[in-house]
UniProtKB/TrEMBL annotation:
The lineage of its organism: Bacteria, Pseudomonadati, Bacteroidota, Cytophagia, Cytophagales. Its main location: membrane. This is Bacteriorhodopsin. It comes from Algoriphagus namhaensis. It is found in: Membrane. The chain crosses the membrane at residues 20-41, 53-71, 83-103, 115-135, 141-159, 180-200, 220-239. Keywords: Chromophore, Membrane, Photoreceptor protein, Receptor, Retinal protein, Sensory transduction, Transmembrane, Transmembrane helix. Belongs to the archaeal/bacterial/fungal opsin family. It is a multi-pass membrane protein. SUPFAM superfamilies: Family A G protein-coupled receptor-like.
Length: 249
């Protein structure tokens, strides 16, 4: 008990004394957890065809909250980046974010093949990124290029592929606004991940800034992207539900 209490006090002291990475792990955990509760509760306020979208939003932030709880403890105990935990989290949550694109456009005609392509692209991006990050300096660039190709395919789908075409043909103002915001998340919000990867030793941006600060950027980007994604989906679900209820009133 004394050892456990001592470790807890040391961890708390690190947070109180403004370790920025530790603080963002803590904030990320709490923000993701609160968001998951919000999305699960709000499922009851939207039309049935949008409930699955909010369920997935709740799962994304809920899964992330659990991983951030363990990543925070790992970082506090070791002072090292929880790379394995982070990639496990991304491998679960990023494909679910791709599912959100499908669910968002499903009421307007999205097909299962679109979902399959998005999930495959996300897994290619993540699996090759993990291999590149853990297999040594000599392989960083090669695996990074393959990973980036997976990311660029997702960008293509959102800007010019099936997802973009369905959004344009939907004649839904709410969906158009949502797609505009999601494009920003995909291009600006998600760009922090390949940039962080390229800062690793031996990679294209090696030495641009401290590798130890990558977790700080990743934590902030995760919270903004995952919670922001869910809030965009929620805004569409609420708007489309209100439109439907008004039409049937």
């Amino acid at each position: 008990m004394k050892l456990t209490l001592s470790a807890d006090l040391v961890n708390l002291d690190r947070i109180i004394n403004l370790d920025p990475v530790a603080i963002t792990f803590f904030i990320g955990y709490m923000a993701m957890f609160a968001s998951a509760v919000f999305f699960f509760v709000e499922r009851g306020s939207v039309d049935g065809k949008w409930k699955m979208s909010l369920l997935v939003s709740g799962l994304i932030t809920g899964i992330a909250a659990v991983h951030y709880y363990y990543m925070r403890d790992f970082y506090l105990m070791t002072g090292q980046s929880p790379t394995a935990f982070r990639y496990v989290d991304w491998t679960l949550t990023v494909p679910l974010m791709c599912v959100e694109f499908y669910l968002l456009t499903k009421p307007f005609g999205a097909k299962g093949s679109t979902l399959t392509k998005l999930i495959i692209a996300s897994l290619v991006m993540l699996v090759t990124g993990y291999i590149g990050e853990t297999s040594g300096i000599d392989n960083n660039i090669m695996w990074g290029i393959i990973s980036t190709l997976g990311y660029l395919y997702i960008v293509y789908e959102v800007f010019a592929g099936d997802v973009a075409k369905l959004a344009k043909e939907s004649n839904s103002e709410a969906l158009s606004k949502a797609m505009f915001l999601l494009k920003i998340f995909i291009t600006l919000g998600w760009s922090i991940y390949p940039i962080g990867y390229m800062v690793l030793p031996g990679n294209l941006l090696s030495g641009v800034f401290e590798v130890s600060s990558i977790d700080l950027f990743y934590n902030l980007a995760d919270a903004i992207n995952k919670i922001g994604f869910g809030l965009v989906i929620y805004s569409v679900a609420i708007a489309e539900t209100a439109k439907m209820r008004k039409a049937t009133a």
